[in-house]
Specification:
This protein is of the alpha+beta class and about 625 residues long. It contains 19 helices and 24 strands.
Length: about 625
Amino acid sequence: MARKNYAKPLGVKDSVIKGAFWRNFMELARTQVIPYQWEALNDRIPDAAPSHALQNFRIASGLEQGEFYGFVFQDSDVAKWLEAVAYSLATCPDAPLEKLADETIDLVVSAQQPDGYLNTYFIINGLEKRFTNLRDNHELYCLGHFIEAAVAYRQATGKDKLTKALCKYVDLVDATFGAEAGKKRGVPGHQEIELALVKLYQLTGDEKHLRLATYFINERGSRPFYFDGEHPNGSTGHTYHQSHLPVREQKVAIGHAVRALYMYAGMADVARETGDETLLSACSTLWEDVTRKQMYITGGVGATHHGEAFSFGYDLPNDTVYAETCASIALVFFAQRMFSINPKGEYMDVMERALYNGIISGMSADGKSFFYVNPLEVVPEACEKDRGKHHVKAARQKWFGCSCCPPNLARMLTSLGSYAYAKRGDTLYVNLFAGGSVDTVLDGGKIALDMETDYPHKETVTIKIREAFAGATLAVRMPAWCEGFQLTCKNIETCDIKDGYAYLRGVAEGEEISITLPMPVEMIHAHPSVRENAGKVAVQRGPVVYCLEEADNGRDLHRIFLTGDVDFATGYDADFFGGAVKIKAVGQRLSPEENDALYRKGLPQTQSEDAVLTWIPYYLWANRAVGEMTCWINYK
């Protein structure tokens, strides 16, 4: 039986972000990132890797002549850009941008084939090859991203041209794949369509879309392995695609991290919509493995660049890490869906960690360069000369040949309002302290509020209730990192603490709720099984993880250590890339030695000198001169 009364995220029109921290990122996405990426998709960024994504559509539609260029999934960059535009238009109407999006949709749809098929790689290179290599060729992945774009654009503008085109394509996929006689029992090599189909089902109410998503989830890992039939002479291994076992039998996160987390999000969606408890149990098991054994302190996931993959529990190297930006975004998708089924603070705590650290680190402060990989330790010379670290960069790139991360970041930032709040029954959940306003309808009636805060720079949050019905409940998240959470109000009937939330029952118009979230600087240590961090600490304030950069602390950051009780001082620097809290403390730096022998007898060097250290938020590293960086510091 489906879970009809689940915690639904608010739409971006119902939740307007106004707090300075996230509003600045959203404005950057709207005014800089979206226009910049439009130029990139049109190959107009000097000295950047070409995209050719829009040119592929012009060729596929017959408007121009030429050959397909790029990866087989190049179409998805256009889809994610359109989705980002849709969310931006929902909160900030922009007639020229909407016209540009409409023209792009016209171009995309003009390439569609009579039976609904829409993928430029095969339209240009030969339709007879379509659906013959699901493992590698990303057709269903690209379709999934276009479905998400179509749903978002319909919700933002009311226009359904792209939705209708994609529904026709889905009809073709549904007629081709399934457990019924005469259909192929195929599954996507790169998961994504599963969660997209659930969004389409929620928009259209067409049960066919939910059945198809359920089929793809249930069929995965079945034997005989479908991919072996496609590739009888060789296989890349089934763990890479998470097709090694039926999904309900998978106990640990393994293989390509983005594929895995998109699949887990789709599994949670199907479990919620169908009431499948066995599927939900599998999701819970995988959630525990990811967040308790395979997640970085920044919310990064995917420890190895070999296959951009999870490796094994507690294997979390800092300097060879992959931690793809897309993987942290996918972790947010998974967290939101797990919360929707079972509203617990632990899911939103992980979402917050990823958002404030491992996701926004993927973009420069000006929105014009990007990280694919998000390391926690960097020595630029090693990135250049150590082949095992070539994937790690000390500076962000203008664009990538495989450029999935930048448009993914754009759609994440422009849709932030849908992550800040959720509603279920008579309860409104406050998940992020992002500042702004809410106007929505719960089961008992309308509720409206305003939130004022300079979080995460400051500790205080004020919520003012503009409108509420009798019996309305406000559930305020109590972050796991916060000790001494304080909440004061005047006329609330009851306040119950459950699963990381303070449930305020009986909120009424005119109520003002004051929240204090103490943010002392904390030294964090890792589980002792994390070999790379033994004897080290990281520094965190509130939800923000900090790092040392060469620009502030000089070279050879590995020679720095902290000892005893450290007296941290904080200060807000309004001129540091839009404003940020910096942290200072006195540490120790190992002194130089006259002896130049590579190895020496006796105990390790103990002579050191005081060093005034400066930490900056991890998400702001690599915005100055190229240099060393580290999050984890030696501790004695």
